[in-house]
Amino acid sequence: MTETGTGNGTVTDTVADAFIEVDRVEKVFDVRRRTGFLKRERRQVRAVDALSFTVARGEMVGYIGPNGAGKSTTIKMLTGILTPSGGRLRVAGIDPARERTRLAHRIGVVFGQRTTLWWDLPLIDSYRLAHRMYRIPDARYRENLDRLVELLDLGALLDVPVRQLSLGQRMRGDIAAALLHDPEVLYLDEPTIGLDVVSKARVREFLRGLRDERGTTVLLTTHDLQDIEQLCSRVMVIDHGRLMYDGPLAGLHEAGESERTLVLDLERELPPVDAPPPARVVRVEGPRQWLAFPASASAAPLVARLAAEYPLVDLSVREPDIEAVIARMYEERASA
């Protein structure tokens, strides 16, 4: 048995059942910077540091952390784009760096800030290229294309040049392109970045169906905790190249003592509402009040009580910032 995780949350997998295996992987970059006239200093930056985890076949895992934590570097090593400086990687039993072409037929990748689609060509032309590049059988290609076009609402966009698509439309187009060849594992790097609420909901709904119907293994990196809450039962937190947490999202909130914020809009200006502990009012501006409550707790009982006792006009719930959660975890470790 291989056990991965921290004291705050542990996930145990049998190595034989692991689809993705990361064993003490490191990635070190040589960086040169100018220190004076005609002088440069060379130093090493450790982007990933002794990282170990396993992901079972069919599992959907959130992989989160602040900017520069090492998330994208990990994804690039798992796809074979980067070669590890040390340690061992296996995806479906394949070493990504040594057998990148062979692995490419078994994985799909979506980078939220970069597109794999042909910028000046109609969307359908990118799919036709994938058809040839991956040597997808004609019948399977047509079946997959029809299914993806329907599920992702791409029918009216197939003849539109990619450069004319909105960000949400292009993102859905990228996801379809990554899935045409029936990959066994899908890497999603910020797939909902910059999307509006409707586009985010559509992408999340599609990914839930992919998980439930196809059993595709998914590794999802995102700054949006709602992506994790709605799609993943397990979350891994990486910072400074190290795995800080591996377990359920509720355990992460408990480890970082994170809080959500309930924003109330009342009919008129009132004194701070009488919130049941552990919820508390943290700010009041006219008829609007902000209440903090533990992120691991449900908002429903709190909302129900306040709605029964106060004249509400509107309300919203704001999720905790992942950087703040990680900072709190660091503080706790430093003081321990």
Automatic annotation (TrEMBL):
It comes from the Bacteria. Keywords: Antibiotic resistance, ATP-binding, Nucleotide-binding, Transport. GO terms for cellular component: plasma membrane. GO terms for biological process: response to antibiotic. SUPFAM superfamilies: P-loop containing nucleoside triphosphate hydrolases. It is a peripheral membrane protein. It is found in: Cell membrane. InterPro entries: AAA+_ATPase (IPR003593), ABC_transporter-like_ATP-bd (IPR003439), ABC_transporter_ATP-binding (IPR050763), P-loop_NTPase (IPR027417). Residues 26-265 form the ABC transporter domain. The keyword Metal-binding does not apply. GO terms for molecular function: ATP binding; ATP hydrolysis activity. The keyword Transport applies. This is Methionine ABC transporter ATP-binding protein. It comes from Streptomyces actuosus.
